[in-house]
Amino acid sequence: MDIDLVVLWVDGSDPAWLAEKRRYQSDVVDDSNAPNRFRDWGLMPYWFRAVEQFTPWVRKIHFVTWGHVPSWLDLDHPKLHHVKHTDFIPGEYLPTFSANTIEMNIHRIPDLAEHFVYFNDDMFILRPMEETDFFREGLPCSFGAEVPLQFSGAPGIWQHLIINDIRTVNDHFRKPIQVRQFRRKYLSRAYRWQDNLRTAVLEKLFPDAFLGFKNLHAPAAFRRQTFEEIWSAEAELLHRTCLCRFRSNDDVNQWLAVWWQLAAGSFSPYAVDNVVEDVTDATIDSLCRTIRLQRHDMVCVNDPSEGTDVKLLSEKLRAAFDTILPQKSSFEK
Questions:
Q1: Is residue 331 part of a domain?
Q2: Around 318, how many Cα atoms within 13 Å sit in the side-chain half-sphere?
Q3: Is residue 330 part of a domain?
Q4: Using omega within 30 degrees of 0 as the cis cutoff, is the peptide bond preceding 128 cis?
Q5: From CA 118, how far away is CA 8, in angstroms rounded?
């Protein structure tokens, strides 16, 4: 079975890109167009090194950008497909500065395999992984235990997104029917006993609708078919999402596709070993230890919205990655 990787990247300092972004953004910088949404930490070489070293079985990498590419990247690499937004996103949605638009059109990438794993540019593999960590018997590996949606802190666009996502899932899948058919996927030995207990209680107390699933903020395994199904079922909703140049409270995003697969039973139960950590002065040492010691299969190096010394912290992160990935990959010039 062929498995591709898709990763999104943006050079937030590109003058041409910045000029186009200014043409469409309002004077107010909010959660939809804050600097951390487009900031590059200079870590992408390690993403490619990790893929080459830890997942050599990958058929092709689809590197998605506005049009710019890092100067160090070898575009002639046989496994690399540089994809511009104009190559796959319908013209009526361009230009876009919303990851939601890019994500919900990802299935349109030319020559994309039916089975693929989607990465944000802040998600890294830390140790060897097999095809069966992402797909089993043709189905995406995912954590299918039910987890009620949880909110804390100041409200942001992402909170509206997950409400929109789970509402859409419940519009198309009746929980009692799905639970009867796929109970062994929602309650599985792949999960902790606490996860299974919570799911069992929620099935009893709230039998009529899914209350939510875990947002792992991790690389996600998909089938192209999933996105085609969602577009067929919710064309108007996705059309409205894609018309927004920046993220909007009314959008849906790729979590809809993750949860659609779960609600449909189109997944293989799996305990995803991923850790998410904001990069701050308080967390940087712990995060670097996690990288150096390869404590998890994958890590998400999350960019906080403010108060970050990017130069200093990125140097520490690069030093940590250098301890496990010191050699250039064949993707680097």
A1: no
A2: 12
A3: no
A4: no
A5: 9
Residue 332 lies in a domain: no
Tally the domains of the chain. 1
The residue type found at 309 is D
Residue 29 has, within 13 A of its CA and on its CB side, a CA count of 9
Residue 150's alpha-carbon distances to 163, 211, 214, 215, in angstroms, are 10, 10, 9, 10
**Tens-of-pLDDT digits for all 333 residues of the chain?**
999 999 999 998 899 999 999 898 875 556 556 665 667 778 999 999 999 999 999 999 999 999 999 999 999 999 999 999 999 999 999 999 999 999 999 999 999 999 999 999 999 999 999 999 999 999 999 999 999 998 777 778 888 999 999 999 999 999 999 999 999 999 999 999 999 999 999 999 999 999 999 988 899 999 999 999 999 999 999 999 999 999 999 999 999 999 999 999 999 999 999 999 888 888 999 999 999 999 999 999 987 756 567 788 999 999 999 999 999 999 999
Q: What strand order describes the sheet that includes 220-223? A: 80-84, 61-65, 3-8, 115-119, 220-223
- The domain containing residue 72 runs over which residues? 3-324
Is the residue at 329 inside a domain?
A: no
**Residue 4: exposed, middle, or buried by beta-carbon count in 10 A (0-12, 13-18, 19+)?**
buried
| Phi, psi torsion values for 160, nearest 5 degrees | -65, -35
Burial of 189 from C-beta contacts in 10 A (0-12 / 13-18 / 19+): exposed
